[in-house]
């Protein structure tokens, strides 16, 4: 888990600020969709 977090940080640092925001929005949207699907089942 820690190693993955470190990798994610390094990857995010390589992105521009706009890309970071888009990445976070996509992640949150995907997370919400996943939770909605989980709740339906």
TrEMBL record:
Taxonomic lineage: Bacteria, Bacillati, Bacillota, Bacilli, Bacillales
Species whose genome carries this gene: Aquibacillus koreensis
Protein name: YfhE family protein
């Amino acid at each position: 888990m820690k190693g993955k977090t470190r990798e994610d940080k390094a990857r995010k640092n390589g992105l521009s600020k706009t890309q970071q925001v888009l990445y976070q929005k996509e992640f949150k949207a995907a997370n919400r969709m996943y939770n909605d699907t989980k709740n339906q089942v």
